[in-house]
Amino acid sequence: MSLELVDLSVDLGGRRIVTDINVLVPDGQFVGLLGPNGSGKTTILKAIYRVNRPASGRILLDGRDLMELPAQDAARRIAVVAQESTIEFALTVREMVMLGRVPHKRGFERDRAEDHEVVAQALARVGASELSHRNFHELSGGEKQRVLIARAIAQQADHLLLDEPTNQLDVRYQVEVLELVRGLGVTVFAALHDLALAALYCDSVHLLSDGRVIDHGPPEAVITASAIERVYQADVVVVPHPDTGAPQPLPRRRRSERNR
Questions:
Q1: Chain segment 162-201, per-residue pLDDT in tens
Q2: Which member of 14, 76, 99, 219 has the greatest number of CB atoms within 10 A?
Q3: In the chain, how many domains are there?
Q4: pTM surpassing 0.85?
Q5: Considering only CA atoms, which of 182, 181, 189 is closest in space to residue 159?
Q6: Domain that holds residue 237
Q7: Residue 208's closest CA among 84, 43, 80?
């Protein structure tokens, strides 16, 4: 099973945002989508979960055109943790996670014993059982991310899309969230802002610049000082992580400051 983007282009507001994107997300792999703000990461993910309609190209799931699948069938295969929750009204944590069961129901079918069991297991898996009766919107950022991942687990999809899952989290929750995701045993395609974390957790990465993929491969081949300078206009030195050897970009001070 795999997710594949073939020559994908997306227009928004009459303007081409991403162009000829080719990405293969192999079964069971954690693949990162990297690039500066405005490079098209979120646009690509929204095309996969059918918020953005492709201008051209195809999105394939196990060789089938994802756009031709019924919405409910697609939701049984692909779960999404977006940058922010679009749900405005008050829900408890348990109710939020129960939304992951919607693709497995018909119409207004009531929650079944099976659904309650799946939700309880999902909350336990992310360490959020004690939050089940709390109001979702009252939670901290790290708690919200764990609950949204629990909702994705309850959805029982075999592909997970993540849009900046560690954004605005402190380092403890960044690591907790990515460790959790890495251990789910599903296929993961994630837009990531932090290059060091991407190098630690991704099997492979795709680097975007101005709406195009300019490089892809294992993190050690893509996350280099020259690539970061080219794409991010940042002066860094890249060193190996002492435990894993994964490339870790470190910012450098301006040369004038270093020479003082």
A1: 999 998 888 998 999 999 999 999 999 999 999 999 999 9
A2: 219
A3: 1
A4: yes
A5: 189
A6: 2-258
A7: 43
